[in-house]
Design brief:
The protein is α/β, with parallel strands linked by helices and 206 residues long. The protein has a domain at 114-206: Alpha-Beta Complex (2-enoyl-CoA Hydratase, Chain A, domain 1). It has helices at 15-26, 63-71, 85-94, 110-113, 132-141, 158-161, 180-183, and strands spanning 2-11, 29-36, 41-48, 51-58, 74-82, 99-102, 105-108, 148-151, 154-156, 168-171, 176-178, 201-204. The longest helix is centred in the N-terminal third of the chain and has 12 residues, at 15-26. It is globular, with a radius of gyration of 17 Å.
Length: 206
């Protein structure tokens, strides 16, 4: 389902100042702009090689305004490319995960996206090839730009192990980490067991 991690969304107060900072530090250029009804924010998309940075500045009350008020400026969400947005939305719905579609993008509730695997997934035989989880981790492993993650709420199983692929992890005060496969006597998820090749840092807010 997942192909590559290709964008991050960053909550900012001042679009002009943030654009100037990203241009000076990373050489980003402005690709396009739009308004997001879901986030109630102006979005300025910056090109960074094959990836994009979406700077999001609130127009009024909404997710971006709440993020800035509670956590300050910084990463709001990460994004991955998929073959078919509609099929991805349907697959998420079958797992009980709500997603809002806007501008050919799906916005998923952060509290439920990486809570962990459904134990029912281990009771049926998988088809040949990588599982969706391994496909996702392989996509993370191919990212060539610094990878930043934010943890809010529970990060269980892959929700924790994927963080070893990140260069910087920002943890909210309510972040909770669990590795249930240890108690089950199972090996960690592939690609997360190898030594990290990056200098990871974890910072807690609050």
């Amino acid at each position: 389902m997942f192909k590559t991690v290709d964008r991050i969304q960053v909550a900012v107060h001042d679009l002009a100042q943030a654009t100037e900072n990203y241009a000076a530090l990373l050489g980003c250029t402005v690709a396009r702009e739009r308004e997001s009804a879901f986030m109630n924010a102006n979005v300025r998309v910056l090109s960074l090689g094959d990836s994009e940075v979406e700077l999001c500045s609130p127009i009024g009350p909404g997710p971006i305004e709440s993020h800035l008020r509670e956590m300050g400026e910084g990463m709001y969400r990460g994004g991955v490319t998929v073959d078919d947005v509609g099929a991805c939305k349907a697959a998420l719905a079958r797992r009980g995960i709500d997603a809002i579609e806007e501008n050919n993008q799906l916005f998923v509730d952060r509290a439920g996206m990486f809570g962990g695997a459904d134990i029912k997934d281990f009771q049926t035989r998988r088809s040949p090839g990588d599982s969706p989880a391994v496909t996702f981790l392989r996509a993370l492993d191919r990212v060539e730009v610094p990878l930043i993650a934010a943890v809010e709420g529970y990060a269980i199983g892959i929700g924790t192990t994927l963080l070893q692929h990140c260069d910087f992890v920002y943890c909210a005060s309510n972040a909770r980490f669990r590795l249930p496969f240890v108690a089950l006597g199972l090996c960690p998820i592939p690609l997360s067991a190898r030594p990290s090749t990056t200098r990871s840092r974890c910072t807690q807010s609050g």
